[in-house]
Automatic annotation (TrEMBL):
PROSITE patterns the record matches: HTH_ARAC_FAMILY_2 (PS01124)
SMART domains in alphabetical order: HTH_ARAC
GO molecular function: DNA-binding transcription factor activity; sequence-specific DNA binding
UniProt-listed InterPro entries: ExsA-like_N, HTH_AraC
This protein's name: AraC family transcriptional regulator
Organism lineage string: Bacteria, Pseudomonadati, Bacteroidota, Chitinophagia, Chitinophagales
Keywords associated with the record: DNA-binding
Record-annotated HTH araC/xylS-type domain positions: 170-268
Length: 272
C-alpha cells in the first residue's frame, strides 16, 4: 500500500491511498470532518454500514468504533481532505457559548453530502498543501469556519462537539456483544468500557468464562459463517467485516474451527 499525506498542520491533511484498498479498525480520538476528492470508502459500524464517494462530506464523532475500507475508483486513488476537530480547539471555540453537551446514545456518522458551504470551506484548503511556511493562524481560521458551518447545518452538532467526557464504566457483556467484530487492542476495549486493562480482563473472564482473544475469535468466526451462508457474501468481504486482518489468516482460523474452508460454503452453496 502506498500511502501519502501532506499536512497544513497536524489537524488538517490531504490523505491519499494509491493501492488496491486499505482496511483498518479504528477508534477515533478526535472528531473528524472528511471531504472526498476521489475513491470510495466503506465504513462498517456495529449497527450501520456507510458508503462514501467523490464529493461527499461527513463527520465521524470521537470514541466511535468502525472498520474503514478505502478503495480507489475509476483509475483514481482514494484521496480525502481530513480536518481533525481537537478537544482543545473545540473548548476554545465554545468557551463563551452556553451549550448543553449531548449524551451520545447512538454511534452516528453525520453526512452532509456535497453541501456547498462545507465544500467551499474545505476546497479553499487545497492550495495550502503545496505551500511552505503557512501562517500559524490559517488552520485555526479554517477550523473555526468549518465548525460554524456545521452548527448552521445541524442543530445536534453543538451537543456532540461539546461532549468532552471520557467513557464511563458500562455493561461489558452488552458492549462486547455489539462490537466484537472490531479488531482493536484490549486496552482500547477497556478504555471504551470505562476500565483499566487489568479490570477489563478480570471482568471479561468473569462474564464469559474465557479469555477475550479466544471469545473474540469464536464470535468473529460464527458471524463469518452466518455472512457466508445466509448473506451469500464473498470470503474476502467477510474476512474484513468480521475483524480479521487478511484472507489467509481468516481461512486458516475458519477451517480450524469448522473443519472446512470458507470457499467450501460458496462452492457447495450449503450451510453446515
Amino acid at each position: 500500500m502506498e500511502y501519502k499525506a501532506r499536512y497544513i498542520t497536524e489537524d488538517i491533511k490531504l490523505s491519499s491511498y494509491e493501492d488496491k484498498f486499505f482496511k483498518s479498525d479504528i477508534m477515533f480520538d478526535q472528531h473528524m470532518l472528511v471531504w472526498f476528492l476521489s475513491g470510495e470508502t466503506k465504513i462498517v459500524q456495529a449497527d450501520s454500514t456507510y458508503f462514501f464517494g467523490k464529493g461527499d462530506i461527513f463527520l465521524i464523532p470521537r470514541n466511535q468504533l468502525a472498520t474503514i475500507i478505502n478503495y480507489p475508483k475509476d483509475g483514481h486513488p482514494h484521496k480525502t481532505v481530513v480536518m481533525h476537530l481537537s478537544e482543545e480547539r473545540l473548548r476554545n471555540f465554545y468557551a463563551n457559548r452556553t451549550i448543553k453537551p449531548k449524551t451520545l446514545q447512538s454511534h452516528k456518522i453525520y453526512s452532509f453530502n456535497n453541501h456547498p458551504l462545507l465544500e467551499s470551506c474545505l476546497a479553499s484548503l487545497i492550495p495550502y498543501f503545496d505551500m511552505k511556511n503557512i501562517p500559524e493562524d490559517i488552520a485555526s481560521i479554517k477550523i473555526t469556519e468549518a465548525i460554524s458551518i456545521l452548527r448552521t447545518l445541524d442543530n445536534e452538532i453543538d451537543g456532540v462537539l461539546t461532549n468532552f467526557e471520557e467513557p464511563g464504566k458500562i455493561d461489558l457483556v452488552d458492549y462486547m456483544e455489539k462490537n466484537f467484530m472490531f479488531n482493536l487492542p484490549m486496552e482500547k476495549f477497556g478504555y471504551l468500557t470505562g476500565r483499566s486493562l487489568t479490570t477489563f480482563k478480570r471482568d471479561f473472564k468473569k462474564a464469559f468464562s474465557m479469555t477475550p482473544q479466544r471469545w473474540l475469535t469464536q464470535k468473529r468466526l460464527e458471524l463469518a459463517h452466518y455472512q457466508l451462508t445466509e448473506k451469500k457474501k464473498k470470503p474476502l468481504d467477510v474476512c474484513y467485516e468480521v475483524g480479521f486482518e487478511n484472507l489467509s489468516h481468516f481461512s486458516f482460523a475458519f477451517k480450524k474451527h469448522f473443519g472446512f474452508a470458507p470457499s467450501y460454503l460458496i462452492n457447495k452453496g450449503v450451510s453446515h
